[in-house]
Amino acid sequence: MKMRNYILVLAAVLVAMAACTNDKGVVDFKSDHKTINIGASGGVEKVHISSSDEWVVSVAPQQEGENEGAPNPWITVSPANGRGSVTCDFIIDSALTTKPRSAVVRIQNIATNVEQRITINQEGYTYNLEVDDSDVEVKKYAEYGKRYFDVTVKTNFDFEVEIPQSAQHWVSREPASKLSEAYQLNLNRGVRPREVKVRFNWKINNSAEVRLADIKFVPKSSIDIERNDVLSIMQEAAEPIIPETRSGDSLALLNIANTMQCWNPYDTSVSMDSWGGITLWEERMPGCKPEWVGRVKRVEIFLCNSYEGLPYEVRYLTAAEEIYIFSNENSMLKSINLGEDILELKNLKRLTVGAFGLSSLPRNFAMPNLEYLDLGSNNFQRIPDVINPTNLPKLRALVMNAEQRHAVSDLSNTVYSVEALGGLIEEEKFPERLLKWGLDTLVLSVNYLHGSLPSFEDDPEVPKWTEAEVIAADTLPMALVGTPKVMPTTKTFRINHNRLSGELPQWLLMHPALDWWVPFSLIFPQEGRYSDGTKAGFSNEPSSLVDYYKNWYPNKKLANTVEEEIPEEDGIITK
Q: Within its chain, how far is the Cα of 101 from the centroid?
């Protein structure tokens, strides 16, 4: 009896266990998700799978559209198979388009073929443009090469930068061609947002007003944009300079020295009267006006590192008669325009900007009272057309010597391009217009001027020496009559060490001031070859000044332009 009961109980237990096993295979196989909704950026969703058997995950092929039946590679499940209960990562890639998409992930029980399905719905991207810092403040001043800022733009559409016209004179976008790949927008992965840097350049604020600009990013194609940030730029105002005042002059000089990165800035702990290279107006000085007393009359600026034209503050030095600027760092490598601010100085009589890296002048260059202009040791390819009697009616002296970027003797055999030479090399012939001007001083030495000097024999614009003029001057020879009257009042004329060739014209060989021009040092010597192979040098250069010139001017005492050595005294030789 007992044995029978045991058998019945055991059978019931076995039946129950079998029933539980079959039931568990169905009931325990499940996931905690039926649907996953995710944004366009994608991400990772945790899905818990409960099972007592082995299972495998598969992503159903695309069910509609032109890619129907193709796989859905934008979903990855890890792990993709297993046994028992496991939490899987559903890794969903970012969207590629603006359209939503969906897919079905199947989880199959290998033992029973029972499936759990999870539908994944992903939104498409909307068109957006986000700026990491949409409010930017810039200083009124920074050194050259540091006047810029970068903003990071996250976007999924190509755009143009729209700068309001009112701000285009002081803010601009750096061309992408000048920047690295980090500044190139690459949309090679559909409409997934990409980060790109945009660089903006700004200029010094020379006004007492705050500058404001709202920069827009305009799509290149017609699209609906959900978000489009505007970049707001604010630039601080400059410290106001009071014009026509001594304090205005001093502040202008401080700013000029700062902007030009002068090696020896002014000492602000002492009065402007003690600053080096500055001459102030005093009552006793000729031409001084009462309102100019104490203001800047003359300023010298040496040794700087500027990449731009003269700073705008120079316009405030309205009482100045002379400005002398010389020696800019690496000037031979620079191509600078003088700038227009200097044109505001109506009282300026003498201007020197030498070894500065100038290669051009402003188009409206005109200074009615300028008498002396020295642009030597710069990088001019040609003499600017704006240097003429109309723009400079009072000019008496022009100096444009040593304009060479590189010293090349033989221009027919050089590695340098024309743009790298300077030296007035773009002048097609000798600048005749300067000889007709009638300047007191003309210095064009050490350049690449070529060709022959003009004879002016048949030029109706050039007068001839008359018999009356010769008789009126007791030293002039009658042989001078009929010779072109070129530069009759010129006291200094220098054209040595160019690439000039051909014959010396008669007007030069017989010029009344030739002995004062020191021709064997400052006119006749030429050097090297021009680009066409022509050897420099004049074919009729006289052997000595005395031998031929004295024959024309027997009544004239030749200028003593050679310094004679004085005998040695006490071991010291003086001249």
A: 48
**Distance of CA 298 to CAs 126, 264, 294, 310, 407, Å?**
64, 17, 12, 16, 33
The contacts of residue 16 (CB under 8 Å, 6+ apart) are none
pLDDT at residue 97, rounded to an integer? 82
Query: Which amino acid would we find at residue 313?
Result: E
Buried b (16+ CB within 10 A) or exposed e, 411-433: beebeeeeeebbbbbebeebbee
Q: What is the pTM of this model?
A: 0.74
**Domains of the chain (ranges, CATH numbers):** 27-122 (2.60.40.10), 127-235 (2.60.40.10), 246-552 (3.80.10)
State the average pLDDT over residues 36-43: 91
**Model pLDDT for residues 465-512, shown as the tens digit of each residue:** 999 999 888 788 898 999 999 999 999 999 999 999 999 999 999 999
> Under a CB-based contact definition with an 8 Å cutoff, are residues 236 and 210 in contact?
yes
CB contact set of 284 (below 8 Å; sequence gap of 6+) = none
The token pair that represents 208 in the structure block: 């007492």
φ/ψ of 291, rounded to 5, equals -75, -10
* Model pLDDT, residue 13: 45
Tell me the two tokens of residue 467: 């018999």
Alpha helices in 147-265 (DSSP H): 246-259
In degrees and rounded to multiples of 5, residue 352 shows phi and psi of -125, 125
Question: How does strand 194-202 pair with strand 171-173?
Answer: antiparallel
Q: How far apart are CA 70 and CA 310, in angstroms?
A: 68
pLDDT digits (tens, 9 = 90+) for 218-243: 999 888 888 899 999 999 998 888 99
Of 388, 290, 400, give the one whose Cα is nearest residue 351: 400
User: Which tens digit of pLDDT belongs to each residue from 132-190?
Assistant: 989 999 998 888 888 999 999 999 888 999 999 999 989 999 887 777 777 888 877 77
What is the C-alpha separation between 464 and 236, in angstroms, rounded?
63
